[in-house]
Design brief:
Layout (H helix, E strand, L loop, with lengths): L6 E7 L6 H9 L6 E8 L5 H11 L3 E6 L4 H14 L4 E4 L5 E2 L3 H12 L3 E9 L15 E4 L2 H8 L10 E4 L16 H10 L4 E13 L12 H17 L5 H20 L8 H14 L13 H12 L1 H11 L5
Parallel strand pairs: 1-2, 1-4, 2-3, 6-9
Antiparallel strand pairs: 4-8, 5-9, 6-8, 7-9
């Protein structure tokens, strides 16, 4: 193996099917000269593991790790261990059905180094069908989000977002244990909260560097599993319970917003009656928080969430009709 790479990309792979080849092509096209990709085959049984092996045979920058199926978090942890063992200075993440802009690694390493920050973040977009056509990146200078603004942005700014995949991390700020949180949903959010809580801030660059593919098999389009609702609520509770004093108001607002969001996820569904237990639990929390200055009256909470909370409790049927008509994503 050659000298330690400047940047590494960790890709958890599980039955990525027809989307993996496009992902690998986008990584092979990275304009940063010095990078390595760690493909972690998490027990695929659809030929994805063989495709990873082929990529490694054809391009020495790809390394394949095969393991029994353990889940995306364990796969990411395995990739981080391998990248750190090889001396990578920076680590990024990509999902096996998504696409990276060819300048992603170059722009984010440059932004992090210029801002002297241990994490750099960029915008992402969503697509269906053919991947977007990327032009060479000419982003503006990175903006620094000094602590605790980077945590505020993680919770409330959709440009920064919860995802691991629109970010680049200095390798020494990541530990494999950061990914071992036992969550199958919102695992990105919880890992980022744990990591960001240790950091002095992050750099943000106005550049769409990551393309998230939406398709029927993607995580956000699978049937709404009850454990998804539980994990998302538990993640918000964890954040609320572990927030520093200067982040408590923001964490309280995030928790209440999550309750309202999860209720809307149920109400927008045609089979909402199948989730009566979960909706009742969420409704109890929303109703109890309506007049609480830490929750429903929290000044950090947006007006739209306050209205949605009131509507969820006081005119549920009408609000369900609105949700079904307007909120069509992630059903």
């Amino acid at each position: 193996m050659s000298a330690a790479p400047l940047a590494a990309v960790v890709v958890p792979v599980y039955n990525a099917g027809p989307y993996l080849s496009a992902c690998l092509r986008s990584l092979a096209a990275q304009t940063l000269p010095d990078w390595r990709c760690y493909l972690v085959d998490d027990g695929s049984d659809d030929g994805s593991g063989a495709l990873c092996d082929q990529a490694a045979r054809e391009d020495a920058r790809f390394t394949v790790l095969h393991q029994a199926q353990c889940g995306v978090s364990a796969a990411r942890a395995a990739g981080v261990r391998a990248a750190k063992a090889d001396g990578a200075a920076w680590i990024a993440f990509c999902d096996a059905d998504d696409i990276c802009h060819p300048d992603l690694l170059r722009v984010l390493t440059g932004a992090a180094q210029a801002a002297a920050m241990p994490v750099a973040c960029c915008l992402y977009d969503s697509f269906t069908g053919e991947a977007p056509h990327d032009t060479p990146a000419r982003p503006a200078a990175a903006r620094v989000l000094a602590a605790p603004r980077h945590l505020e942005a993680l919770l409330h700014d959709h440009a920064v977002d919860f995802s691991l995949c629109n970010k680049l991390y200095r390798a020494d700020v990541l530990e494999p244990a950061d990914f071992d949180n036992g969550f199958s949903f919102n695992e990105d959010l919880l890992t980022n909260w744990i990591v960001f809580s240790r950091l002095p801030g992050c750099a943000f660059v106005d550049f769409t560097g990551y393309h998230y593919r939406q398709h029927p098999g993607s995580a956000s389009h699978r049937p709404l599993a009850p454990e998804s609702l539980d994990d998302q609520r538990r993640a918000a509770i964890y954040i609320r319970e572990h927030a520093a004093p200067d982040m408590q108001r923001s964490a309280d607002a995030f928790y209440y917003e999550k309750l309202v969001y999860l209720a809307s996820m149920i109400l927008r569904r045609e089979d909402a009656d199948n989730y009566r237990v979960q909706l009742n639990e969420l409704g109890v929390g929303i109703r109890a928080g309506l007049n609480d200055p830490r929750l429903g009256r929290n000044p950090r909470l947006g007006l739209s969430i306050k209205v949605a909370a009131w509507a969820t409790v006081h005119c549920t049927r009408l609000w369900a009709a609105v949700c079904r008509r307007v909120l069509r994503d992630r059903q």
